Amino acid sequence: MSRKRQYPAYPFVGVGILIEKDDKYLLIKRAAEPDKGLWTVPGGLIEVGEKAVDAAAREVLEETGLVVDVGERLGVVDKIVHDNEGKVLYHFIIMFYGATHVRGELKAMDDALDARWVTLGEFKEYELSKSLVKIMTEIGLFNV
Questions:
Q1: pTM
Q2: Does domain 12-135 have CATH number 3.90.79.10?
Q3: Distance of CA 109 to CAs 64, 79, 95, 114, 123, Å?
Q4: Which of 42, 62, 73, 77 lies in the 20 to 30 Å Cα band around 135?
C-alpha cells in the first residue's frame, strides 16, 4: 500500500504490538522513518477494511516471522512530528496491543533492521522511540 506519509492530509491509524515471551519482550530496530534506527515494537498501518487486531497479527508476522496471539489494547499514543518550520511532517495515531508468542523463529524482516528479545531491565540499554516509552510508562512497565 502506497500512501504519502510525509506531510499527510490526515492522520494515519496504526498498531504497535508489545509481545511477551518467557519474561522478555520483543524489540525491533526501525529501518524507515519516522524513528529510523530507534528501537520499538513491531507495528504498522491498518489497511482499509482490516480490524486493528488483525493488522497487529499481520504486522508482527511481516516484520518478525512470528505468529502471535493478540490480546487486549494497552492504550493509544498520538505521534505527531513537526519539521523545522513547524509543519506536520508525520501524524500517526497508534493503538498498542499486548500479545504472546505462539510459534515461529524470530528474524528481522520487512521494516525491521534487527529484532531481539529483551528483559524490562535491559530496555534502558536501547535507544527507544518516544511512542514506546510513552505507552510503557502509561501502563507501568517503564520508568523514565
A1: 0.93
A2: yes
A3: 6, 23, 22, 8, 21
A4: 62
Confidence band for 1, pLDDT divided at 50, 70 and 90: very low
Give me the mean pLDDT over the 43-57 stretch: 98
Cell of 128: 527507544
The pLDDT of residue 85 is above 80? yes
Closest CA to 22 of 121, 118, 131: 118
The CA-atom distances, in angstroms, between 108 and each of 5, 25, 27, 97, 105 are 23, 15, 10, 20, 10
Q: How confident is the model at residue 58 (pLDDT cuts 50, 70, 90)?
A: very high
Give, in degrees to the nearest 5, the angle at Cα 35 between 81 and 109.
Answer: 140
